[in-house]
Amino acid sequence: MDSPIENSVSPLDYLRPIWRFKWAALVMVTVAIVATYAYFDHQPRTYETSTQLYVGQSSIDSLTGNSNPAVDARSLANQARLVTTPAVASVVIRRLDLATTPERLLQRISVRPDASADFLTIVAEAPSARLAAQLVNGFAQAYIQNRADQEKRLVNVQLKSAQLQLARTPIKESNLPARVSLAQRIQDLRSAALNPESAGEQLSSAQPPASAVAPNPGRNAIFAGALAFLLAIVLAYLFDRSDRRLRSVDDMEAMLDTAILATIPQVPKPLPVHGERDHIISELREPYHTLRVNLELTRTRRGSAKSLLVTSAFSGEGKSTTVRNLALAYRDAGMRVAVVNADLRRSSIADLFDLAPGPGTAEVLGGTVRLPNAIQTDPQVARRVNRPRVAKPRKPPRQAPGQLDVLTAGDPGENPGLLFYPVAVRELINELEALCDIVLVDTPPVLLVSDVLALAPEVDGVILVARVGVTTDASAQRLVRTLAGVPQTQIMGAVVNSVAAGGAYTYYGAYGPVERADDAQPSANGTHDPHEDVADPALRK
């Protein structure tokens, strides 16, 4: 058998991990958005406002001989530092009667110089809108007052210097121009000291802001939701790579390297209640009848194949339920079918058919009981066959029901594996094939028990059973490799269980639509032709 084939990857395959964990991703994003919004919505509000100061040259600068202190970026930066000095902050604290220190207050103030003009922008943050406006205006006025005080002190210094210089200049005709100039300077300095013109000017008073600048719960929630979504995508791909369970029918077909005979949809309760286990539930009736038809077509193409072994890689993949429902599908089609429970360690066939414990496969293989004495005919079927029916001439005659014979596990003893001698197994299969139209053998999982290796060469074909979300790629590959090493083993195909809604009938169209078994008509000679269930005449042989 060839190794599992590689399927081409479609763009939708890259989105499958995200879709698989969509609900987890939705929960992550929702929790992130709600939690972030709630957290920031309960944080203290921060309000921000600003004002602009003109710090150009004043008339006092020209009198004192200073150049323009704000004509270059360096001088403007120096003026910005003067706004945020502890001395200015102390004035603001005193005027506003604030219970804080200059250092802590300065953490709420920032000054941005404008490199293209002689302006400073003072920005303040505060827990209230009113306080933010008060801080901005307070620093602006404190800076202007501090600047005016400095210039006034400079004018007084210059005035005393001019007066001293005038007093030291002798009264001579040659000194007359100098004395006139000094007298004019003294007059100008006195005028400036009496009516000082500040070099700083606040363009407009700052107003309390209408809304807070922080926190922003909406924006932060959107940002947190986006991060949570990206994290969910990353986690989805990480979990998908670490989780090797097969999630699609295409993956099953690739790993098992065989045809998919049927995909069984996922249903809450795949089995009827006890006492009513002589039929297949309505949701699974069509898939299992389709499985029967596809098996009949496969058997026809490969020649006579009356005995089929049903197995899986591990337990919990639905092989025993598949045997049970497939047997009922054959019975409903008017065939006589035998079910052999060869899973002697974890027997479930008797319970699936509501049969009483008794001698079975273990006793027949051990030679202590003959096969006719161990076979149990499904009692529910027997009662239905013998029940008188009222003729309904308006409806077409229904197909005569088949017969279901079950060989339960029996009492295997302490070492069931010793019972599977090839000769004894072959004799049992031959005897059942002579009595029945089809023989279905339920076996233990291949990767758990070696009994299958003794049974597989003695039957005409093997059916693999896998379950979506349970079977892993490693177990599927090991299953194929193990059976490939068993001589004379013919794999008929695979059955995929628990396929999600929308994917259960992916492969049913391979042979055309199928009629219900209850509506099928008997052939002219009274026997049932399995190909009559195929609606397409081209597929009938």
Highlighted features:
3 domains, single chain, alpha/beta, 13% strand, Bacterial polysaccharide co-polymerase-like, 541 residues, disordered N terminus, Rossmann fold, four-stranded antiparallel beta sheet
Structural features, described:
With 541 residues, the protein is α/β, with parallel strands linked by helices. The chain has three domains: 11-43 and 216-242, no CATH class; 47-202, Bacterial polysaccharide co-polymerase-like; 249-385 and 399-518, 3-Layer(aba) Sandwich (Rossmann fold). It is built from 19 helices and twelve strands. The chain has helices at residues 11-20, 22-41, 59-64, 73-83, 86-96, 102-106, 129-167, 176-194, 217-242, 249-256, 282-302, 319-332, 349-352, 361-366, 371-374, 379-386, 422-435, 451-455, 473-484; strands spanning 47-54, 109-114, 119-126, 201-202, 260-265, 307-312, 336-341, 376-377, 403-407, 438-442, 461-467, 491-499. The strands form two sheets. An eight-stranded mixed beta sheet has the order 5-12-11-6-10-7-9-8, sandwiched between helices. The two termini are 29 Å apart.
Question: Quick summary of this structure?
Answer:
With 541 residues, the protein is α/β, with parallel strands linked by helices.
What about the largest sheet? Answer: 8 strands, mixed
Oligomer: single chain
Task: Work out the count of structural domains.
Answer: 3
Strand content of the residues, in percent? 5-15%
Shape: rod-shaped
Taking pLDDT < 50 over at least 5 consecutive residues as the criterion, the unreliable ranges are 1-7, 67-71, 380-393, 504-541
Q: Please report the number of helical segments.
A: 19
Give the rounded overall mean pLDDT.
Answer: 81
Helix and strand content put the structural class at: alpha/beta
- Helix share bin: 40-55%
CATH topology of the largest domain: Rossmann fold
How many strand elements? 12
Q: Any idea what the CATH superfamily of the largest domain is called?
A: P-loop containing nucleotide triphosphate hydrolases
Strand order of the largest sheet: 5-12-11-6-10-7-9-8
What separation lies between the terminal Cα atoms? 29 Å
Alpha carbon gyration radius: 48 Å
The first-level CATH class of the largest domain is given as Alpha Beta
Q: What's the CATH architecture name of the largest domain?
A: 3-Layer(aba) Sandwich
